[in-house]
């Protein structure tokens, strides 16, 4: 799960708005295999976006999951953009069984809070839905009401 320290200011405001409206984001739709999610992604380490090529090279030496990515570009704010090297010519993962959690959880419902978005080619979308977990927690805190047996009138 993404860490709140990675949220953008706009993302925090949107999350607060959804909370006040007793709603949460859910992922709807299905993958159209466009491959976009595998070609321009941000990676983090210890709740911070990776910004330095030197840091990324060090992480690749320490952690196997980082080895599958290569640097493609940089955002305007200096965060590195990565591409997965396991994407084949048909935009399919050639190592699907061994993909990291990051890939398994995509698109995570918190992506918009992190400054991310989905492209129009993507078959997934985010929808604001009632926060049923919140409602259940609220209902479970209420004292149980004692049901009175029906009376016979006659």
Brief overview:
This protein starts with 8 loop residues before the first helix and ends in a 13-residue tail after the last helix.
Give the topology.
Blueprint: H1 9-20, E1 23-29, E2 44-45, E3 48-49, H2 53-62, E4 69-74, E5 80-84, H3 101-104, E6 124-130, H4 132-141
Antiparallel strand pairs: 1-6, 2-3, 4-5
Textual characterization of the structure:
The protein contains four helices and six strands; from the N terminus they run αβββαββαβα. It has 154 residues and is an alpha+beta fold. It has helices spanning 9-20, 53-62, 101-104, 132-141; strands at residues 23-29, 44-45, 48-49, 69-74, 80-84, 124-130.
Question: Keywords, please?
Answer:
single chain; 154 residues; alpha+beta; two-stranded antiparallel sheet; 4 helices; 19% strand
Run of helices and strands = HEEEHEEHEH
Helix fraction, binned, reads 10-25%
Tell me the strand order in the biggest sheet: 1-6
Shape: elongated
Beta percentage is 15-25%
Report how far apart the termini are: 62 Å
Total DSSP E strands: 6
Largest sheet: 2 strands, antiparallel
Rg measurement, Å? 22 Å
* Number of helices in the DSSP assignment: 4
Structural class designation: alpha+beta
- Tell me, rounded to a whole number, the average pLDDT: 87
Unreliably modeled segments = none
